[in-house]
Each structure stands twice: as C-alpha cells, then as structure tokens.
Amino acid sequence: MKIKIINANILRMVQDEGVITGDLAISGEDIAFIGKVPDDFVADKTIDGSNTLVIPGLINAHTHTPMSILRNFANDLELMDWLTTAIFPAEDRMDEECGYYGALLSMIELIRSGCTAFEEQYMFVDSIAKAVFESGMRANIARGLVGDGEDEGSLQRLQENIDLYHKWHKKGEGRIHVDFGPHAPYTCQDGILKKVIEAAESLPDSGIHIHLCETQTEVKGSIEQYGMTPIERMEKLGLFEKKRVVAAHGVHLTDRDIAIIKKYDVNIVHNPSSNLKLASGFAPVAKLMSEGINVALGTDGSSSNNNVNMIEELHIAGILAKAVAQDAKALPAYEIIKMATINGAKALGIEEQTGSLEIGKKADIAIIDMSGAHWYPQTDLIAAVAYSMQGNDVRDVICNGKLLMEDRKLLTISEKDVIDKIQTLSKKVLGQI
Ligand SMILES: [Zn+2]
Question: 401: phi > 0 → left, psi -120 to 50 → alpha, else beta; which?
C-alpha cells in the first residue's frame, strides 16, 4: 500500500535537524520520500497532516506486557516484598490465555501512546508472539529465565526460549525478533547464565535482555555472595562479550560498573516510573549519557508503573534526570526524545530499520495531533514533545507501513473484546474465583 501524509511538521530524529515541514510518503513497508514527494507518486491513501507532528514510532525498551493483568494489584511495597508476597503467587495462577490477552491489553496502551516497538521479557512467550504478530507491532521477545541451569525447570525454560527463536525469529514480515531473558543476577545462578551465553552465541541476531542493578539490596547481596557487583559478575561470566545486551534499570552503579558498561557497549534501559514507585533509587541517566553510553527508555510492567504510556514515561524521564543531576541543563529535550526513539532502536538491534524517519527505513510512525490547548503557543515543538505532549494526543500510528490506529481507532486489535476478557481473567489470577 502507498500512503502519503501531507502538510505535516516532521521530526525525523536525524542529527540535530529539528522540525521540518512537508510531506512524507510510504511505499509498502518503507519510507519512500520525506519533505517533497514527486508528483508521480500515486498514493492509495492520503492522510492530512495539518496541525500534526510526525515523529518516529516510540520504542519501549523494557516491559512485561502480560503483567497488565496484574495492574493495580499489590501496591505500596518495595521490590523484594512485592515480588515474593504478591507477584510470584499471582503469576502461578496465570496461563497462556492470560499471557495473550495481557499482552494485547498492553499493546492497546502502547499503540495509543505512539509506540510501535517494544522489548519483552516474560513467560507465555508463544502467546505474546502470536499477539505481536496479530497486532502489527514490532517486538523483541525474551523468555524470562531463572534458576541454576541444572534443574529441570531452568533447562525447560531455556529450551522454550530456544524453541521461540526457531518458531518466531524474523517472523511477521521481520517484525518479531527473539532475545534471551535471564531475569536478573539474583534469580540466575552462574550455571544458567553460562548456558544462556552459549545459546545466544549459537543463534544469529539474538541478544540478551536482563534486569541489572535495580536496587541497593541486589548490589549488596551480590557483593556478599560473590565479592563483586552484579555488573562485575556479568563481565567475569562473559555475558557482555559477544552479544547485544539490554540491561534494564542500571540504578545503582559504581564508577567501575559504568566503565564496564561503556567498554562493552551495554545498552541501559531507564524505567523512571517503576524505579520511583518501587523506591528503587535514581538512575544516573545524564551521567551515563555524557559517558556516551546508549540509554533507552522503558515503562517496565504495568504492575510496577501502573501503565505502559510511553509519553508519560518520556515526560517523567526528562524532568527526573535534571533533578537527579541537580542540573537543569542536563538531558536537553532532544536527548530525552532520543531515548524513546533511536536509542531504543539501538538497544533492540534494529536501528538500521527504525528509530528515526529516513528514506529506506521501515515506516514506523506516530502522528501527533497538536490541536490541544497544551500545544499553544506553538513555538519550540521539540520541547513540546518532551514536556507538554499528552498520551491521547497520538492520532494515527503506522508500523512497518501498515496503519495500526487511525483517528484514534485501533485497526488491528478489538479493544472492547480484550477489555471484557481481561476483566474476567483477572478474577482468576487474583484468586477471586
Ligand atoms: Zn522489569
């Protein structure tokens, strides 16, 4: 299909170009023209971009989509308490159907907040992949892995991750990628981590998606048990050596940890809402970025946030980074938007395909309605994206050249069916039936 967006403001996220005005044309899956579209380009569909801002689809680089089913369950607890007393028992009552509908519920929110791609780590990955396939979104999916690498459970989970790769990697017109998901240093012993490294090395284009240095308790425990910080331990095991690593959180880091992250080009995913809600601490985002480390943005799961609205996350990340650095000049608006676009694409290993609007890249696009009062006066549109934009400003979303939302109506997911189903399933998960 050929689509033309006309009379728009376009923020391509290419160097420091800023906002340009003009048209954008899509041919099949790809962006064909930006700015001026030749007269002989005949579009099947023309979208009026007047008073809109066309931006790259946002990328949520760390989430657990089925956890939407646990939204607003077990609040006001710190991480370890929250996991062991509330989340793990509820997760035991979840099944593939919960995984599928939970993933779709999150995808409704993601698309509505302008997101076209995400990095997943959870259970029920076959159902998540099916949901991604149907939704038209782009995703890297990793099976959450825990244990010692010897017991039957940990081996079976690893095998599920390998099977997922063979079944889904590069499927859905190439939208689906499969990574490996060792949960965290405190839930993974050396044995399983070594097996993950081996498996990832044997499968091309797969990366490793792990939680790292989320809380002080985690770092303290690692030093007590191993005599090393979690980052030092992962380096020693060789986790950073050969594959793309997506490390969620990176809140509590020593200078030596930061040097290791930099040395191996580890991607850090900042999850400000989750870190604030679980009182995990304050990630040194501006410091990491000034060191040249790739920092992407994530929402984490809906049960520690409690939503996956990437525009809200963008805003919180921007203002929080300044407070943490105690410097209003830290992390300017453009850098904040980079975290949610091109930096996210780098973390997912898909920067050749998406993360910016460029001719030849895949057409992953959010069209933002700028008619709301909070957009006026229309002066600095980059500052407006970082500090004023609201989730419901997203009007249309295109992923891989296909419209997923038009005039705020979802085209690939039946919102009502998913909401109805989730309401019933949640009763089972929360032990109410
Ligand atoms: Zn997480």
Answer: left
- CA 192 / ligand 1 centre spacing (Å): 19
Q: How confident is the model at residue 76 (pLDDT cuts 50, 70, 90)?
A: confident
Q: Quick one: pLDDT at residue 195?
A: 98
Which of 131, 125, 175, 180 has the alpha carbon at shortest distance from 158?
Answer: 180
Instruction: Specify whether 130 is located in the same domain as 266.
Output: yes
**308 C-alpha to ligand 1 centroid (Å):** 12
| CB contact at 8 A, 274 and 307 | no
Per-residue DSSP letters for 306-317? S---HHHHHHHH
Name the helix (H) or strand (E) containing 222. Answer: helix 216-226
Regarding whether 62 and 49 lie in a shared domain, the answer is no
* Residue numbers of the domain that contains 376: 2-56+357-410
133 C-alpha to ligand 1 centroid (Å): 22
User: Which of these ranges, 4-8, 103-107, 119-123, 428-432, has the smallest mean pLDDT?
Assistant: 428-432
Boundary-marking domain end, from 348, 367, 382 = 348
Give the Å distance between the CA of 64 and the centre of ligand 1.
7
pLDDT at 83: 84
* CATH label of the domain that carries residue 45: 2.30.40.10
Structural domains counted in the chain: 2
Residues 157 and 26 in one domain: no
CA of 248 to the centre of ligand 1 (A): 7
pLDDT per position as a tens digit, 338-390:
999 999 999 999 999 999 999 999 999 999 999 999 999 999 999 999 999 99
CATH of the domain at 262: 3.20.20.140
